[in-house]
């Protein structure tokens, strides 16, 4: 894996933002801006000589951009105003700046990406497009609301819908409309001691309104948030990934990857191995597990895992996808549990047959959905001029870069990185938070306990005030410490030092007990501080004025 830029860290200070590249050139980096990145990425894409079916890459890119922009405009216009230029050719030719995230209640640092999409697109006279990643799983329909004091703060779980089995957001309905409708008032009441005017109070009715129209939990949250962005003046389009993958041009790209599924499988695992070597990662499951090989029967072709998810309408649990190629060249996909489908997808079949086969999967209510790496590969290669990642996405997309290089022999377009930190104003409510550092105090207590175990003599009264017994033990320990640990003496030397340490323990017992008594309160204070000062609280917990100041960026 070739060297790549280091993964940035989120800003520590509340209100701080990270934009790489900046919207406009700065004195510190006069050559760096979104416009420069767009120009460089277009040159990189022009160097691709890859053919997908009977099309050159640039031909499929132009067709994909047309379909995606058209569908995104139609989807967005179904619930808010969105411009759709009359000159479609010019619209397609203009830069597309793209990002994406799951449709949950994410923190302000994630929402900053959406603000950056708008700012970047304005700077290059392009289009901002956000992917609603509704193909990710909905694990829990609720959020933790911080309550309490710096000594005992904790997260109170507040559900916005009834529990349901884990499934993709695109399949997740709203089960309890009364519970959903009351979430805004319930969460705001708990939050009031820390933040009495969260934007949640006036925004949640918009989510309830959207829920009555779209009947899907994730889309209700995403559409309500996007409608609020319109009031902020952001001119962005959105489209769910579940809609994106149904487009014929996207199915062509999917078919091409599946037709080269074995090479894709090998490139994926090779990229993971290279990432682990570069970052000195030892665990085989980090940053994600290798794609697996399975053999059902001896002598048969193995099943190789491909980076998609599969499920059916009757059983919406997301499951891994395995593929195998038969003697006739037919590709078989299966979750190796209940679903198995044969598709006429191979390098020798036409893209029209790929599209027909994948369309029939949808008609039979079988979902084939890309994992994160395939989604961003599609966005970066086939649609956008710049894809905007957060911190986590920027880290794993080093794998995407390596996979693209191995499959095509070309360097992929580079991505932007945007993140930020916004914390609740708890320091004003609890001034002691700014001065206290329970984590440092807890570490100091733990160091003290270790020192009491291995160096108890450091914590006794001066030697002349000790009993003769204690002075003798200390002299014996110093003697053995000063003794060179030869082969014959090293074992005895160790035992003698340990024996002295054990003998001195009764003399430091009071100190040990006092230190132990501090651990539980300090650990509780540390957890409480982490809860109150976390950067992960949902954006809707903050007041509108604070959010506007954080999100407006250089477009102010």
Rounded to the nearest angstrom, the radius of gyration is: 29 Å
Overall 3D form: globular
Give me the side-by-side strand order of the main sheet.
1-18-17-4-5-10
The name of the CATH architecture of the largest domain is 3-Layer(aba) Sandwich
* Biggest beta sheet summary: 6 strands, mixed
What is the CATH class of the largest domain? Answer: Alpha Beta
Oligomer: single chain
Quote the average pLDDT: 92
Topology:
Layout: E1 17-20, H1 34-46, E2 51-52, E3 55-56, H2 57-77, H3 88-93, E4 96-101, H4 108-123, E5 127-132, E6 137-138, E7 142-147, E8 154-159, E9 167-168, H5 177-191, H6 200-214, H7 217-231, E10 236-240, H8 241-244, H9 248-259, H10 261-279, E11 293-294, E12 303-312, E13 319-325, E14 331-334, E15 340-343, H11 351-363, E16 366-370, H12 372-383, E17 386-389, H13 391-408, E18 416-420, H14 426-429, H15 432-435, H16 438-454, H17 468-482, H18 490-504, H19 509-532, H20 544-551
Parallel strand pairs: 4-5, 4-17, 5-10, 17-18
Antiparallel strand pairs: 1-18, 2-3, 6-9, 7-8, 11-12, 12-13, 12-16, 13-14, 14-15
């Amino acid at each position: 894996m070739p060297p790549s830029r280091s993964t940035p860290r989120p800003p520590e200070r509340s209100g701080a933002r990270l934009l790489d590249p900046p919207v406009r050139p700065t004195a510190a980096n006069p050559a760096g801006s979104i416009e420069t990145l767009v120009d460089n990425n277009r040159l990189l894409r022009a160097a691709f000589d890859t053919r997908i079916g009977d099309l050159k890459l640039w031909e499929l890119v132009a067709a994909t951009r047309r379909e995606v922009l058209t569908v995104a405009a139609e989807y967005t216009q179904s619930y808010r105003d969105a411009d759709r230029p009359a000159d479609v050719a010019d619209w397609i030719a203009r830069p597309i700046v793209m990002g994406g995230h799951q449709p949950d209640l994410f923190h302000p640092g994630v929402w900053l990406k959406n603000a950056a999409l708008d700012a970047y697109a304005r700077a290059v006279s392009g289009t901002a497009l956000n992917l609603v990643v509704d193909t990710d799983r909905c694990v829990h329909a609720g959020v933790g609301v911080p309550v309490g004091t710096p000594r005992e703060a904790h997260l109170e779980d507040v559900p916005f819908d009834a529990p349901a089995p884990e499934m993709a957001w695109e399949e997740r309905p709203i089960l309890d409309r009364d519970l959903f409708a009351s979430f805004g008032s319930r969460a705001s009441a708990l939050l009031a001691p820390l933040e009495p005017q969260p934007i949640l109070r006036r925004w949640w009715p918009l989510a309830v309104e959207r829920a009555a129209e779209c009947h899907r939990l994730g889309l209700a949250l995403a559409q309500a948030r996007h409608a609020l962005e319109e009031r902020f003046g952001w001119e962005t389009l959105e489209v769910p990934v579940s809609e994106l993958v149904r487009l014929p041009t996207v199915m062509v790209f999917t078919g091409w990857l599946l037709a080269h599924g074995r090479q894709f499988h090998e490139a994926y695992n090779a990229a993971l191995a290279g990432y682990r070597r570069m970052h000195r990662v030892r665990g085989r499951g980090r940053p994600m597990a290798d794609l697996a090989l399975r053999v059902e029967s001896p002598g048969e072709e193995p099943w190789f895992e491909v980076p998609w998810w599969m499920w059916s309408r009757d059983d919406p649990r997301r499951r891994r996808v395995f593929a195998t190629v038969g003697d006739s060249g037919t590709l078989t996909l299966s979750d190796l549990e209940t679903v198995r489908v044969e598709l006429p997808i191979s390098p020798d079949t036409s893209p029209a047959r790929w599209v027909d086969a994948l369309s029939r999967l949808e008609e039979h209510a079988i979902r084939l959905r890309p994992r994160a790496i395939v989604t961003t590969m599609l966005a970066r290669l086939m649609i956008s001029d710049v894809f905007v990642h957060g911190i986590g996405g920027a880290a794993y997309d080093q794998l995407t870069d390596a996979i693209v290089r191995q499959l095509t022999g070309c360097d992929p377009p580079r991505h932007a990185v945007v993140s930020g930190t916004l914390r609740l104003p708890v320091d004003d409510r609890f001034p002691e938070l700014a001065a206290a550092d329970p984590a440092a105090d807890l570490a100091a207590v733990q160091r003290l306990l270790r020192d009491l175990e291995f160096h108890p003599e450091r914590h006794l009264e001066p030697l002349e005030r000790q009993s003769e017994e204690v002075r003798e033990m200390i002299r014996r320990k110093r003697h053995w410490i000063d003794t060179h640990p030869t082969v014959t003496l090293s074992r005895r030397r160790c035992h003698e030092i340990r024996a002295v340490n054990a003998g001195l323990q009764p003399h430091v017992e009071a100190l040990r007990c006092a230190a132990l008594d501090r651990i539980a309160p300090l650990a509780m204070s540390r957890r409480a501080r982490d809860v109150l000062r976390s950067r992960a609280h949902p954006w809707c917990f903050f007041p509108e004025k604070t959010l506007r100041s954080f999100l407006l960026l250089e477009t102010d």
